[in-house]
Amino acid sequence: MGQYQQIGSIFFSQTTNFSFLSAKAVVDGNITLGMMMSISYIIGQLSGPIGQVIGFAQSLQDAKISLERLNEVQNKEDEEQPITTKSMLSQKKKPSVWKTYASATMALNAIMSLKT
Q1: How many domains, in total, are found in the chain?
Q2: Which residues are within 8 A (CB) of 58 and not within 5 positions of it... i.e. 6 or more apart?
Q3: Is residue 96 a part of any domain in this protein?
Q4: Which pLDDT score, from 0 to 100, does residue 13 have?
């Protein structure tokens, strides 16, 4: 797709072909010198915005591809475990959350036994 855009950009930037054709038409007497200058001016004014649109389309495609790749990397599963989990597993200790849960469970059990 990028090659087609570059070819299109080169095609519009090569305005010398139109200048040559209009100069030949002046020599042949088909158009006047003022008409040739008008043609050259109009083509020159059109080539800039057309080149900018083509460049914008290329930048938009590059941004889309980059965004897709970033999403792909962002949504990929972590290759390594977090450091805290690794160290706790290597020490064979339960995380402090489990200790808190166990303490809360024992406290609730003690309260429930007092009520009965």
Answers
A1: 1
A2: 2, 5
A3: no
A4: 62
User: Which amino acid appears at position 100 of this protein?
Assistant: T
The 3-state DSSP class for residue 107 equals helix
78: phi then psi, degrees, rounded to nearest 5: -60, 140
Q: Is residue 81 part of a domain?
A: no
Distances (CA, A) of 26 to 7, 47, 48, 69: 29, 23, 25, 55
pLDDT at 74: 82
List, for the chain, all residue ranges whose pLDDT scores fall below the cut of 70.
Answer: 1-6, 8-16, 81-105, 108, 112-116
Query: How far is residue 23's CA from residue 43's CA, in Å, rounded to a whole number?
Result: 14
Q: Would you state the pLDDT for residue 35?
A: 93
Residue type, 30: N
According to the model, what pLDDT value does residue 26 have?
Answer: 93
Q: Do the domain assignments include residue 61?
A: yes
Q: How many C-beta neighbours within 10 Å does residue 111 have?
A: 9
Side chain identity at residue 28, one-letter code? D
Within a domain: 88 = no
Q: Which domain holds residue 31?
A: 2-76
Token pair of 34 as six digits: 């003022």
